[in-house]
Write a structure and sequence with these properties.
There is one protein chain. The protein is of the alpha/beta class. The chain is built from 28 helices and 19 strands. The strands form five sheets. The chain has a nine-stranded mixed β-sheet with strand order 1-2-17-16-7-6-3-4-5, sandwiched between helices. The chain binds 1,6-di-O-phosphono-beta-D-fructofuranose (FBP). The site of 1,6-di-O-phosphono-beta-D-fructofuranose (FBP) has 13 residues, from loops.
Length: 684
């Protein structure tokens, strides 16, 4: 009995070999961390374009420099004081989880404890909420060892609470004081690092240091100086999420090219930026990947030319409409169908709607209306106006009460908004997040875009333009079996029979059995009382497209994935950088690793001042100072390479598709590639 239970327990244990390996793994550390101590060296060569509002609102931090972490073997009397002090450091995770977060904590912990066992690290529960509620734990070695190299933010959880009022700031200061903290580490995205700078400014005189860490799967925290030198190439978590999405997307490629039945529409996370979509394109070679930033950049040259001839400017020629976008997708679908591939993989960034002018205008206007309402009322807009009808009535009221139609919501908005399907209206009116951002992950972007695609495809089918190509060899074989005159039928039914094409396209005029029969009658191939021959019916059936799709959303699954080796190493070294910045006396800066796109030996830990990165952006209807989100640069090597390769990946020619199989994220054995592909391309 005992042996049976032993065996059973071994089979059902939740400790896998992979877990054991992950727990054992100690990420390598950069050379600068191999000595006894570190010091910070200001780097005058990196300059930033400083916004005057940033200068006005962050005066204590605005002149901070990029700091290079260097190794020292011997302490000076000044640095001795810093290093021999027993640090009390608070840590919060902020925003969505990103693989590698635990390693940041492990890095801070390991370095701090190596310097002195008196150093203490405290983790606040569920992000800033823990700081406000004074809910924290002291982080122990057992906790760190349990979570090292594992995904999620499970150790201390995360949250989206923001320190955005004077009262919250006061509570935060009180609790920092109660715990006698020397430093606060904020592991978050662009908005959380913006928050870090303002908290740092506030705590400056108290001597409490605040350090940010670039976290987010979206990959939109990237920093360059004014001359374009890359100081932070990406956030931790981006590589893992892209790899996790790509593994699943590539499996769909295998399935799709086996049953040749579906277009798989893969919406991937990333908020506004399309970095994850672009990286997934390189990882999988999906047939079609849309990049939001490119759509925004679109110019209809024909229209521009026509308007110019009339000495006019056609503003509608700039940017793509939803209808136009759906036409572009349809063209690609039809191109593949012509060579018998009425299936494929489409990657769609979740934030694509933000780049479509007509939608973006609604998003901005509604952000403002909702924020304004929430600011002036106890209950939120969505609590009060629970139904679509009540929301539309409120918009109508705003429109009617505005003077001379000069309002944020005018007659034209009302008219255009009422013309879009109600499920889409509902989604545009959903609650905004705490930063006033539109919550793209809650919107069925894929369904919205594909609704337009499906409608257009059915028009194209009715007009005879959308056809599935029929293999010439198949046509000839079945006609031969039935003793039918091949050439005569070929010329009657297909528009390219006399070409060398391997795939034959049924003539546009043949769109039903009726039109097929009349074509055969006209050529005298059959008589009125005859049926269309069985073989020809079969050919027609094959050529008649049925567009079938499956939609998938890749987001939370990748966000919860265990980190790749790259993210384990990156995040762990970020943790070491954080402690170096604290012990070096820095504040209001973000830990970063320069040269991330290069070999590990070239990685250079630095601190980037946050205040000089600020610019003005509209948030919730107000202009605010925030760190600029980085979107896909259309002049980057990665985007140019993608542009050159996408026709190959569309694979609108006979033969197998070009899919790449990145495989699962592995911790043992041979690892596919050790950094994001886009990062490597951009560094060439
Ligand atoms: P962060 O910006 O906080 O890192 O979160 C990224 C993200 O995963 C986005 O890709 C996505 O749009 C959003 O979070 C989803 O938010 P939520 O977790 O609140 O549903």
């Amino acid at each position: 009995m005992k042996t049976f239970l032993d065996k059973q327990n071994r089979v059902i244990t939740n400790i896998s070999n992979e877990m054991v390996e992950r727990r054992k793994y100690v990420p390598p550390i950069c050379d600068v961390f191999k000595g006894e101590f570190t010091t910070l060296k200001p780097q005058d060569s990196y300059k930033f374009d400083i916004h005057k509002e940033a200068k006005a609102h962050l005066p204590k931090l605005i002149n901070e420099k990029v700091m290079k972490v260097e190794c020292i073997e011997k302490l000076t009397s000044k640095s001795k004081k810093r290093f021999l002090k027993a640090y009390r450091i608070g840590v919060v995770f902020s925003g969505g989880p990103a693989p590698g977060g635990h390693n940041v904590i492990a890095g801070i912990f390991d370095f701090a404890k190596k310097i002195s066992s008196e150093n203490k690290i405290f983790g606040f529960w569920q992000g800033f909420q823990g700081l406000l509620d004074n809910e924290f734990v002291e982080i122990t070695k057992d906790m760190v060892d349990h979570y090292r190299n594992f995904g999620g933010f499970t150790m201390i959880k995360t949250g989206r609470t923001k320190i955005d009022t004077k009262e919250k700031l006061e509570t935060l200061k009180r609790n920092i004081d109660k715990l006698n903290l020397d430093a606060l580490v904020i592991i978050g995205g662009d908005d959380s690092n913006t928050n870090a700078a303002f908290i740092a400014e506030e705590l400056y005189d108290e001597g409490v240091q605040v350090i940010g860490v670039p976290k987010t799967i979206d990959g939109d925290v990237q920093v360059k100086d004014k001359n374009g030198t890359i100081l932070c190439a990406t956030s931790f978590g981006f590589h893992t999420a892209a790899r996790a999405f790509s593994k699943n997307i590539s499996n769909l490629g295998t399935d799709a090219s086996s049953d040749m039945k579906y277009w798989h529409i893969c919406k991937v996370m990333g908020r506004v930026a399309s970095h994850l979509a672009l990286e997934s394109a390189f990882q999988t070679h999906a047939n079609l990947t849309l990049i939001g930033e490119e759509i925004a950049d679109y110019v209809d040259e024909e229209r521009v030319k026509k308007a110019k001839e009339k000495n006019e400017i056609d503003y509608t020629a700039y940017g793509l409409t939803l209808r136009h976008l759906s036409r572009t997708i349809c063209n690609k679908i039809m191109k593949r169908a012509k060579v018998g591939k009425n299936f494929g993989i489409l990657i769609l960034p979740e934030g694509i709607l933000e780049f479509i002018n007509e939608i973006q205008i609604f998003i901005i206007k509604l952000n403002t209306i909702i924020a304004e309402y929430n600011k002036n009322h106890d209950k939120s807009f969505n609590q009060v106006f629970a139904t679509l009808e009540s929301k539309l009535a409120y918009l109508k009221k705003i429109n009617e009460t505005s003077k001379d139609n000069i309002s944020i919501w005018n007659d034209r908005d009302n008219e255009l908004f009422n013309a879009i399907p109600d499920f889409f209206q509902k989604q545009l009116l959903i609650e905004r997040d705490v930063h006033g951002n539109f919550q793209f992950s809650l919107v069925e972007t894929d369904k919205i875009v594909m609704k337009f695609v499906k409608e257009h495809l059915s028009t194209l089918k009715e007009s005879g333009a959308y056809k599935v190509g029929v293999k010439r060899t198949f046509f000839e074989t079945i006609l031969k079996e039935d003793n039918l005159p091949i050439k005569k039928y070929g010329e009657t039914v297909f528009k390219n029979y006399n070409s060398n094409d391997d795939y034959l396209i049924v003539k546009e005029s043949i769109i039903s059995f009726k039109t097929l029969k009349s074509a055969l009658l006209q050529e005298g191939l059959i008589k009125e009382q005859d049926d269309v021959p069985f073989a020809i019916k079969k050919i027609y059936d094959k050529s008649n497209p049925k567009f079938q799709m499956q939609t998938h959303f890749y987001g939370y699954d990748g966000r919860g994935s265990d980190p790749t080796m790259f993210d384990c190493n990156y995040a762990y070294n970020l943790g070491f950088t954080v402690f170096s910045l604290i012990s070096g006396g820095a504040t209001g800066c973000m830990a970063s690793i320069k040269n991330l796109e290069k070999e590990f030996e070239e990685w250079q830990p630095i601190g980037i001042p946050i205040a000089p990165l600020m610019h003005i952006e509209e948030r919730g209807g107000k202009l605010m100072l925030v760190i600029e989100k980085s979107v896909v640069d259309l002049d980057s090597n990665a985007f140019k390479a993608f542009k050159n390769l996408r026709e190959d990946w569309l694979c609108a020619y006979p033969g197998e598709d070009n899919y790449r199989k990145p495989g699962p994220i592995r911790f043992k054995g041979m690892i596919e590639e050790d950094r994001p592909i886009t990062l490597v391309l951009n560094s060439i």
